[in-house]
Amino acid sequence: MSAKLLSGKEVSEKMLADVLADSEALREKGIIPKLAVLRLGEDPGSISYEKSIKTRMAKSKIEVESIVMDVTVSQEEFVAKIQEVNADKSINGCLIFKPLPAQINEDEIKYLLAPEKDPDALNPTNLGKLMIMDNKGFFPCTAEGVMELLKYYEIDVKGKDITIINNSNVFGKPLAIMLTNEFATVSICHIFTKSVKEYTLKSDIVITGCGVYGLLTPDMFKEGTIVIDVAMAQKKDANKQFVLDENGKKIRTGDCREDCVEKAGMITSATPGCGGGTGPITTALLAQHLIKGCKMQNGIE
Amino acid sequence: MSAKLLSGKEVSEKMLADVLADSEALREKGIIPKLAVLRLGEDPGSISYEKSIKTRMAKSKIEVESIVMDVTVSQEEFVAKIQEVNADKSINGCLIFKPLPAQINEDEIKYLLAPEKDPDALNPTNLGKLMIMDNKGFFPCTAEGVMELLKYYEIDVKGKDITIINNSNVFGKPLAIMLTNEFATVSICHIFTKSVKEYTLKSDIVITGCGVYGLLTPDMFKEGTIVIDVAMAQKKDANKQFVLDENGKKIRTGDCREDCVEKAGMITSATPGCGGGTGPITTALLAQHLIKGCKMQNGIE
Description:
The structure is a homodimer. By secondary structure, chain A is of the alpha/beta class. The first copy, chain A, has helices at residues 8-28, 44-59, 75-87, 106-112, 124-131, 141-152, 172-181, 196-200, 260-263, 279-297; strands at residues 4-5, 34-40, 63-69, 93-96, 161-165, 185-189, 205-208, 226-229, 233-234, 252-253, 266-268.
């Protein structure tokens, strides 16, 4: 029996429709939701990312203001700019592009951006809000994307045994907290876990995000398990060489091997045939967060 | 075979000796470590707690300044007082006594106390620092106490299977993060877990903190398991009636039943005969945190 495919794209479309409605309602009140992107220098990757953010935000009727500083900017100038962003009532959120140049002390910077203008959860205060379930916080998007997927498909996690394979700051740790906040029983596995399979085999839900194609295989979980794979990987063979498609291109996958779909009860993964993964939700969350921040800052809801 | 008893008292004595040495070194530099306690009103329990803090801090040569405000204080006055504490260079840390009266908005207050003057981890920013392993943070004392115990007895957690029975903001959640930061494989159980025993039975280390005598029994773990019980409970019988000692007094226990000591490899618990529990470490951490804050604020180390 083949798994029900969970579509991150479908979830994101619903989210973005809600975001657009909220954005339009704000505009009717004379409030223009605006995201600032703060970029140092002219790195082509950053410029391209900035363009894609503008395209995406436009779909949610969110303005984007580019703030570009020279890559040689001093810590003092950079700090002053962030304080300016914090004080600017027309800006509802700010993305600070990384990596930052060596003269910038990121440890200082991340605590400086106002938590309510931090849709990307750069400021650790937002992670602290997650720990105490303060819903005014912004949480890391990939982790929150899993919660959005579960909510959309009405998958109740209370009392469920869940294994997360990943313990990073941006995914495994915040997701474990979100899931225990909902009273799932959560196990956090990683590279030093003695036997990941011992955990996944007894889980109702297995969540992975390692970027290693083939990390999750059907022998590792029970028939009917819900598999959520947020990884972005490329297919490699047993000799760790890239597998190419008929056009000579690398094949995008998640952590799942293709045959996971035959044993799981529900699945989403970037691995072909497995529902596509949660990437589109992660992307939609940036817009959702910006609108949430805009509403909070304007005392709406 | 009976378990090796882990003594929270022994750990705390070593910690307090280190704290005292640090405190004396600071005084030699002309720096007087000082804790402020901010109390609203004359609640007898709070006054008694304040006295015990003074006695304890005196042993570490830490001054205690009592700041007492009327229980009818307004939010504005309370906020102003905390800002005063934040700005006062002679104060290295502040405990805000709870519960706060109804007119005080605790949600605002907790974000207000400067994180570096927050030895009790009231400010969620300190929990965020824990998430990203920023060691300048202050972490909840009962959770950190477990880490101190493990360190003192040289119990390496990397790759170990560990079950925590508790998912509270002040214990289970922060401890899970601390342990995964050290690459233990952590499972977080609680009241809605289908089978706690399924987790504890395969664990190398079982950590409990529920306040329910008899919650942990030897059938729930393997021979040789390390059992750490931070709970403060009182012994009850099968009918949930208090069991009294020969003097008619209630019997202090942890979550462990007495016979856990016969099967565990190492144990600490407030249950009689089980090593005493981690309470003394929790207490010592307040002094340790105050000294750490004092050093940070004075640019030492």
